[in-house]
Structure to design on (168 residues):
């Protein structure tokens, strides 16, 4: 009996030029460095004899499978991504790749986010996916616009106090 799961929502196939370069570098590292190392270690573990009780062999097989799975994913994903390497004609409006500074109208707190593709999100850096509710609410907003958004912590009102794009 199999378990049925509804299909995951498709993620947007956009990526910044720097994000694309990072994914290509990861793929290159996995294929040219990590995979050959693991294959060599796997061969050494296999040469030790009985594979049924060989923890090193089992670990290396699993590691090789994980690397191959990531290589397949990156190869397919890189083919389907569209690199956005242009800045919009209106630099005061929020579009993909923008750094946006927001002020919480209720308490005056400010925060800064960059709208990026789903493959390059990083909460620590303030990089949010274009598919996130906040990014969707921000798209096409302009400097000094206010908007309300329902988040897990409740209803919040934000003001856009800064919009900038990285130079190409």
């Amino acid at each position: 009996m199999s378990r049925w799961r509804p299909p995951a929502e498709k993620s947007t196939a956009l990526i910044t030029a720097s994000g694309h370069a990072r994914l290509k570098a990861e793929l290159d590292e996995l294929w040219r460095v990590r995979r050959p190392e693991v294959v060599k270690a796997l061969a050494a573990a296999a040469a030790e004899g009985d594979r049924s009780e060989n923890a090193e062999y089992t670990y290396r097989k699993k590691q090789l499978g994980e690397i191959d799975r990531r290589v397949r994913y990156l190869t397919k994903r890189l083919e389907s991504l569209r690199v956005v390497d242009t800045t919009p004609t209106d630099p005061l409006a929020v579009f993909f790749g923008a750094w946006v500074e927001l002020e919480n109208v209720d308490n005056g707190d400010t925060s800064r986010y960059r709208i990026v593709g789903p493959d390059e999100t990083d909460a620590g850096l303030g990089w949010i996916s274009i598919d996130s509710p906040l990014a969707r609410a921000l798209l096409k907003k302009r400097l000094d616009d206010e908007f309300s958004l329902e988040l897990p912590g409740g209803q919040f009102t934000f003001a856009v106090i800064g919009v900038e794009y990285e130079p190409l």
